[in-house]
Amino acid sequence: MKKNALVLALSVLVIAAGSYLAINRFNSSAEGTDKELLGSNSKGSAIVSGENENDGIRPVGSAVVISADDLRNNFDRLSADAKKQPALAYSLAKLLFECRTLSRSLDSAEELISSNKVPAKSKEKLLGDVEKKAGRCKGLSEKQIESYLELMDFAARSGVVEAQLSYSDYAADSMVSPESIANPQRIVDYKRKSLEYYNLALGAGEVKALGLLSSAYENGILAEKDAYKAYVYAYAYALSKNGSSGANQWLAQMESALTVSQLQSARSEAQQIYMRCCR
Are 13 and 172 in contact (CB under 8 A)? Predict the structure, then answer.
């Protein structure tokens, strides 16, 4: 049982690196949902910022700013407020996850700095950015940092579309923990929630969810492999993007797994999904 759980846990790590593969195939300029947000958006998501030490926490609305000072000194209040305010929960979860992966970020930065891949004038800024993030996380306990998953889950359940799209990526990192390996049901729940949140995002009209659902059925990590469903969602996404060259190439590769009648049915179903979500 533990061996099977370990295999499941290791498999979900693929998601963190490749769950946006479908989107990138369609549109090489598409932006990931896990990037640092720099402004408010139409769906009312929070904004994460630690650049200004004097920033406070503004009421949830078009923007929520969490200062480094509040993160360090007022965590209990932040956490309590976040459990009632989905946008704040999303912002706080992103920051805590950044703290969780900080050592990896520092290793990557040092590796880049020691290589010739970064111009000399950029090296100091790169290291400074990582050190600034480290200062923002100083003093947080492991328990506080690990609360990121609960907060991200709450934000996704409460309708923050960006949290619904990125929950799978953020949660994947915790699925290789000893707790997850000892409790296979946790991984099962993770997969179920990931698909559920993709579908909720799709219901809210977020076309990126189409690419993510297609990828899930194509690679068989979050869901059982299903070439038909993978093609349906991929075709619907291609329709929403007016069929980029990357989309057409990927669809052509997927077509070989389906019969002519299946392709006709899948395209019809994709048209219906597209009309419901994306027009």
Answer: yes
